[in-house]
Design goal:
- This protein is α/β, with parallel strands linked by helices.
- Helices cover about 35% and strands about 20% of the residues.
- It has four helices and five strands, in the order E-H-E-H-E-H-E-H-E.
- It has helices at about 15-25, 55-75, 90-100, 125-130; strands spanning about 5-10, 35-40, 85-90, 105-110, 135-140.
- Strand 4, helix 4 (about 125-130) and strand 5 form a beta-alpha-beta unit.
- Helix 3 packs parallel to helix 4 (about 125-130).
- The longest helix has 22 residues, at about 55-75.
- The protein starts with 5 loop residues before the first strand and ends in an 8-residue tail after the last strand.
- The structure holds adenosine monophosphate.
- Adenosine monophosphate binds near residues 109 and 113.
Length: about 150
């Protein structure tokens, strides 16, 4: 089976390079088939909201920085700008919703991310495997993997 549309979800950690490379190798020459997404989690900043005078400015800066990093990652493997998407919300649900909206047949993501503490609650990877309506490929990344 040829995957016509692939969504690759990255948390912008250094492992993102490997995850994108796997998605690109599956897509072959057809990089317009690949959508690179990153989801900014509101939870990451909300607990400090009361202590930060200009919260909107902080949110804008986090959004702009995340967008810049997403663009650098996606540009490196020539994913078109129209296929680079920054979302804001709960990562696993947003990844699955976006994949369904663009009718993707495959989601590629890492087996582990920067949010190791969330293993206790159920990781993004596990939630995506449960929720996705399409195939999911988890690329083995993490401290115990060797290049
Ligand atoms: P986790 O399960 O949170 O340790 O992360 C596993 C993988 O899910 C990461 O390697 C990324 O590929 C993806 N991922 C985690 N968080 C995000 C996010 N905020 N936006 C997009 N992808 C994410």
């Amino acid at each position: 089976m040829k995957y016509e549309r692939i969504v690759v979800a990255i948390d912008l950690s250094s492992e993102s390079t490997k995850i994108l490379d796997v998605a690109a190798s599956i897509a072959g020459k057809n990089l317009s088939a690949v959508h690179a997404i990153h989801v900014v989690e509101p939870m990451a900043i909300y607990p400090y909201e009361a202590y930060i005078p200009d919260m909107q400015k902080v949110k804008d800066e986090i959004g702009a920085e995340s967008k810049k990093q997403l663009r650098e990652h996606a540009d490196r493997i020539n994913i078109p700008a129209s296929n680079q998407q920054l979302l804001m919300g709960p990562p696993a649900s947003d990844i699955c919703r976006y994949a369904a909206e663009c009718d993707a047949q495959l989601i590629v993501l890492g087996s582990h991310g920067v949010s190791g503490w969330r293993v206790l609650l159920g990781s993004t990877a596990n939630s995506v495997i449960q929720e996705a309506k399409c195939d999911v490929l988890t690329v083995r990344v993490g401290l115990d993997t060797k290049e």
